[in-house]
Amino acid sequence: MKPAIQTKTKKYLLYILALSLIIRLIILATPTEIWWDESVYISIGKYLFSGGASGFMEFQRPILLSFILGTLWKINIDPITAGRTLAIICSLATIYMTYLITKKTHNEKAAILAALILSITGYFIYFSTKILTGIPSILFILIAANELLNKDITKKNITIAGIATALACLTRFTSILLIIPILYTIIISNKKYKDKINNITTYLLSFCITLTPYLTYMHMKYENPIFSMSSALQEISQSKIHYTSSILDIAQQIILQNPLLILSLFGIYFYIKSPTIKKSLILAELAMAAITLHIIPIKIIRFSLIALPFLCITAGSGLAALTEKPQLAKKLKHLNKNTVTIAALTIAAIIAITSTIPYIQPDTPDQQAKENIYLYPKTNNITGPVLTTSPMIAAYIDNQVSSFAWPGYAQKVYENNKKDTELILINTCDLICLEHDTACQKNRQEFIGMIQQENQKIKEETIANCTHLIFINPDYKKEHNPPAINTLWWDEAIYMGLAENLYQNRTYTFNFKNQETFRAPMYPLTLAALFTMTGPSETTPIQLNILIALLTAITTYLLAKELFRDKKISIASAILAVTSQQYIFWSSKILTEPLAILLVTLSLLIFTKITKNKKTTLYPLLGFILAIAFLTRYPLGLLPIYFGLWLLATDRNHIKENRKKIMQCMTIFLLILTPWMYHSCIAYNHPLGSALFNIHQVNDLYEPEPWTYYISNIYTYLPYLGPLFTLGILLSILTKKPKNTKIKTYPIIGRVGARKTAEKKINPRALERNETHLIASLLQGCGISQNTKGEIDNTKKEQYFLICWFAITLILLSFGIGQKHIRFLLIALPAIAIISAKTLNDIANTLTKKHAGIILAILILAISIPSAQSGLTKATQDKENGIVLRQAADYMKTNSKMGTSIMSENYATLHYYTKQHIVWYPKDTWAIDEFIKRDNISYIVVENSIYYPEYSKHYFDETPGFTKEYEKKQGDQYIKIYSTQIR
User: Fold this and answer.
1) CB 885 within 8 A of CB 487
2) What is the pLDDT of residues 302-320, one digit of tens each?
3) Whole-angstrom Cα distance, residue 146 to residue 273?
């Protein structure tokens, strides 16, 4: 049975959480004002999930809260309601985490008191219903601290702490200083130097991996991974508005909110008097929170939320410690427990009510502004961009919004955006000028006067001493299109078009002649499924690719670990795979490569588990994955063939013993493919018609490259992994089976039995003593951990398994497919990355065994950082290509009706953006008139981004009956649009 005191404390905690929830629901029941910062976070979420079509972006803001709000908005959940619900959940979780931490640092009695003190603090209650980052950020810090307060700190605890602190930084940048005490605790929690290094490495890895998607996004958008953080810190440091004079003012306000927080002084005293690692962590976090508040020039009470839980922890501990004093304990024994409880609850209720009442008041001005001003675009069917001084409007509408609140740069923003703006909203109170700044006030009046002259005023209303002005831009046209910011590639446009048709029309079609039914359907089907949650968006596939990259790193790690039983090699393999230049670049595209790489890695992992660990029950799963892989990229039909050939070459007995399981695998494989084969029969009169026609298109439409293309270019496109992979192949081939070693070997991929037999017959220390020559040591490094000569023999087969997959892929792509792209070879990336990691580990072990791990880490960083940087730079630069084509497509979409036919070679991209019928050029000029009449063509597009008939360069300029309507150039790329009448 559980102790009575533990049962009581849990019951008290439940009462505290229930009362806290009721108070917050009462606050939500009253009309509440939407704050400036709340609307900004909502707006950023809309911007992220609409590709910039809704809301606006403030890059100085952290992204996590906005990402969650944007996700909810995308699936049609009101972001205001959802955000405030999320805020309440985070506040209750913060109370609970405060309880858990205090329980570990002191006792259960102190934990209840700390939770109670936090729950009745007025400004904590109030901000618990606001869509702000303070409480979620400190919640993640508390989660991290709680993980490090366990008796035995495991790698799991450290990993969770790393993820939590990264999320805290993504929620609020200033939380980064609170990481210092956590790092210090990890360092001092172990006495051994090796354990310290391992724990710090685990923490930093989990921290950095969690931040990687955000840093990647920042680099791709602003060409600087820490651009947002540095800009935020710069803006804070240069802020001219200080709401309070010093940190002492905040401390005074905190005490007035809840006088019980004075007890934190006693808690700090008792913590210092009897120090432990756990108590030191709390004190260090409290001190670092105070330093953070001192550094930030904008000093307002809500920023002190980062210190409040730690104040409550020490206050609860201080009160509990006081009641545990012998003299006071004797006096308390004579008191009636019910009387003490009632008195305590009364005091708590008085504090909670008196500190909360000022916040629970209807906000009539905000409601009036919402109904009369902020909802004006929605009620008047204005869908164009909005230029506003009040970002609060972005919380209520889905228009594209630009904010220009500060007089210092408002005029510049207005000049840059006025042509592309339909509605202008000005709140005079938002154009902030300090009282003594007469120049600013004068500029404000002149600026408002200029806007009145250039635009049509349609509404003016004074609300709470603030004048709201609404203007319509008379030069704005409803059909106005925003400037293009990105253009999809040919294949990207096709996959997006197929996915959108699947989502909207439940048909696998593209363009009016349906030229693309031969495409492998799995990727468009996946996108269409995601569109049911997010709606059609070009950002959805990129977000999917980020998730796929994470899963690829995990599966690569597991595959390497399954093969070599070495964590260092496994971690190195995962890092090398997802940070390679080619992987990062192609992951920025809406293409099948990332998903194909993941499915290949997963297939190799499952097959390895089956053959190495005799887990034949995985055969049905393997059949399913192989079918999905084939439906993602047709060349992956090579996987089942390769697995069959490997078994025939290495272990025919395995086939005989597991015939039924293998038949199950093939049955599931064929059952999954049945709908696709049925579709192929209807469309191409052959069950494999789609795949065969796909290969036929690739081989016939494009001039084939020489068969040596991949061999000659692998070092160019994989400048780091290529040489390492080659060295790994050479080491594997040159390593010989040691003599005088009787080992029972299995022809399958490194069976466990061989490993165990080798371990019995060979003494590892004796082996190491015998190997003194550098080359011999390097060759023996082909083993996993250089434990035995038997290990060396076994790992050769494991390496050959990966090398042979690369070889068979290389042969197929070199001789079987005419069109060649290095991205096609990426299906062998798992093998290349793992062999390269194995080679680096061998080199590190050869140089020194004692510090091999550190050397391996340095080598991995030296390779992965420049490789990733190169991939990100290439992806960023590529975003700028093809803009003229996108702008031309927007022009034709604006100036044509649905069903218009357009002649162009780039039918994929133009059809996706215009949704019009696209017809290819005829081979000869004499057929142009026939094509125009037959397909009722209205526009002809001449552009040089892809192959086009040579005659189109000048034919339409020199031939009567064609009128040039549009022409644009960007660098070497140009595009012309001619209109024609049916001749």
Assistant:
1) yes
2) 888 888 999 999 988 888 8
3) 22
